[in-house]
Amino acid sequence: MKDLRVGMMGYGFMGRAHSNAYKRLTDFFPVQHKPILKAVCGRNADKARQFASNWGYERVETDWRKLVDAPDIDLIDIGTPNDTHHEIALAAARNGKMVCCEKPLAMNVREAEEMARAVEDAGVPNMVWFNYRRVPSIALAKQVIDEGRIGRPFHYRATYLQDWTIAADVPQGGAGLWRLDVDVAGSGVTGDLLAHSIDTAMWLNGPITRLVAKTETFVKERIHAVTGKVQPVGIDDACMFLAEFENGSMGTFESTRYARGRKNYNTFELNGADGSVFFDLEEPEYLQFFEYKQQQSGKKVEGHLTGWRKIHVTNSEHPYMNRYWVPGTCIGYEHTFLNALADFVMGIEAGKPAQPDFREALKTQRVCDAVLESARTNQWIRTGL
Question: Can you give the pLDDT at residue 282?
Fold first, then answer.
């Protein structure tokens, strides 16, 4: 067993999700590397110390440069706000560290290109935490599509809806609400939510080549949590876009933080000539599958039992599930990060890098930038993919 010495950047939501994965990796997956929680870095020393004590990190840093320079760190995990990803990743790569980064990869395509080049020039393993690829039901959808059960794809539609920023008195900025500050987040729902939808869509259905988008900011001004001043809101509260895929299919994408009652409603549906798949994150243990024709007497026909199937994705033959419990028992959100980490580590050991790496995540960044450019110009935009 080899040590994989981890330096965690950030102690928030993603810091917890990633730390849980590091702690449980060798409990569930037979890998040759055992994560060691060496250090956590955060701006608030007291909160960082509390986090370190709770999760078992050996020490605390408040200067990220000390962490990327530390000789006892093998992997830098970037779970900090979006505006920090670029500088930290470049420094970590220069120092020969493995890099795992939260999504979106960067603030824009320019930064993402530099980050992809940096890890490739340094030859260091890298990954972006698009964890929804590791939901067993979504991974099963990928398997179904790759097996040709959908046939020629016609339509892809995705929604990602939340409601937590509806109130006009919610401030922007600061430790808890940096996602509302354009200088820190880069964008609103486009980078935060649609980045997930776009990554999933292109993983399942291929590159998005052209799109047209509309964004809206419903509350135009908010108090800034740091300055205390009322400032213009620069992020998008909602976004809708139409997309064309390289394979000729059409796509619709919708995301908002103003869908009252929706907390983390993430869905997709792909319709093809021979079948369809549908997924809803609020019921993550299920994949819905429609098969138009079934095998009967050596040929495919439309039978009297043709219809949607609601598959309970908990059997040992389903993706990742042979590592967990008996059939019929579910895993949770936290296991998607554990599955992602397992794929990353097994990729290192097999010499086959896990996806999405920085180069793959750059494709999603190109689509996000195209969405924002289309919304700004009211024009169809080519993504370059």
Answer: 95
